[in-house]
Design goal:
- The protein is of the alpha+beta class and about 550 residues long.
- It is built from 11 helices and 13 strands.
- It has a 6-stranded mixed beta sheet with strand order 7-9-10-12-11-13. It has a 5-stranded antiparallel beta sheet with strand order 2-1-5-4-3, sandwiched between helices.
- A hairpin with a 3-residue loop joins strand 11 and strand 12.
- GO terms for molecular function: kinase activity.
- Its EC number is 2.7.13.3.
Amino acid sequence: MAGRAARLAAGVHQTWRRSLQVRVVTITLVASSLLVGGFAYLIADKLTNILLENAETDVLLRLQNGSDYASKQFNLYSQPQEAQLQDTIDGTVNYLAGGDPAQTSGVVVAITADNFAGYIESRTSPDVQVRPLISRELRASVAAGNVAHQVRTGMLDGQRTKYLVYGSPVPTRFGQVELYYLVPLARQDATAADARATVVATGAALVLLLGLLAALVTRLVVTPVRVAARTAQRLSAGLLDQRMVVNGEDDLALLAASFNQMATNLQRQILRLEEMSRLQRRFTSDVSHELRTPLTTVRMAADLIFAERDDFDPAVARSAELLQAELDRFEELLTDLLEISRFDAGFAMLDSEPTDLVPVVHRVADRLAGLAERVGVAIELDLPDSPVIAEVDPRRVERVLRNLVGNAVEHGEAKPVRITLGMDQSAVAITVRDHGVGLKPGEEKLVFNRFWRADPSRARQTGGTGLGLSISLEDARLHGGWLEAWGAPGQGAQFRLTLPVRAGDRLTTSPLRLVPADATLPFGGPRDGGLLAIGPGSGAGALAVGPAEGADRAEVNS
């Protein structure tokens, strides 16, 4: 039962969030119900008060006349023990009760004389017990010489009825007696109930009419918006020929016409950009392939010259060495350009297999040990003792790590570079931490751009092509993983590669934190434990790039 209620509540909440028409109609119904309910309450209350005031006026007039009549009758007696006084009281009560023209209104008249209990008996017409309906406070007020009234509910004729009870003192020569009129309010209550029912029914009909009107008006507005949304979804899915139907000349028709014009312009621009991109990719690929043949020839000649450099003049020998180094870099650039062109064309394929990443990290560190020693940077490894197995393409992962570690060594400022490997049930992560110049605010967004350099005037030690991080980003995306960067001026930088343990799984968290524990965060942010999210524009930012760029996820610290 609880599960069904939870599903129902979730469905209602989802409908509320997704349907503008439901929200407008619901708000209209609630607002109109409150407004109509308030008016209905005021009208019913006012009508009830009017009916009660009319009844009070009628009873008060009757009470005054009856009091005057009774006073005249009783003033004939000077002592309460006179024999004819009781008969006069009985006749007076019957006369006053018979004054009701309908004779069926249920009005009860009573005369009491509590001060003369031994001489005068109370009389009521008709003969019913009215004592329960005359409260002690009312009797005290009338006995004190005041005209007072109350609304009381009780049983006189076998059924429970609400009565308007009015009491008035009747002065006589021998003292004061009290006259009471008890008028049933059943007719007034019935009239008020009928009025309330009429007002409620009218209000309910008005609310339903307003809800229906709101639904119709909202439908007229929402339907074109929904059509526009569906058309926009088809356009975003690549169906660029989708258009809205234009009916009439109103604002909605203008919206549809403007939307269609926008879609036409977008289609034309997208097709033009696609053609330009296709030509650019083809040009890059063709140039890279065409340069292979002359490069091979130049390479053969350069190798021959380089092998005989000891027999040359020192200046010529040095030129041969420079030529060999630049040819190596040129060949690497052509290789990277070909790889980039395969990514752009969508021809890159992933050759996943269960791989232990610990030996991969060792191979990368060994390969770059010579460069690290030359620039005075120590490479530190923080690796688990047990194997770290994941379904990855080992060639691409090793290439990503070579680029990350090579950049860290290049910008390490002769300080240690630390490589950390971590794993949980769903993901593996590798972080490369350096303590060099770091990244300025906003540069973490640019670091993966092609041919981008943080400091163009800086002398390179590795002779890189400027495409390494771009290719690494594409390799991470191809695995369905993330490649992220963090950096701060003077605190160095840290890159994190996160890959799913099983190929094709979707990442949600990373086993290693992106921001290093020794970093000084702006505004005194958290260093370890808990949630940590550093985004662009925060001074020390993190660029998170995954399978879908900009996807939301939690940054979980170990």
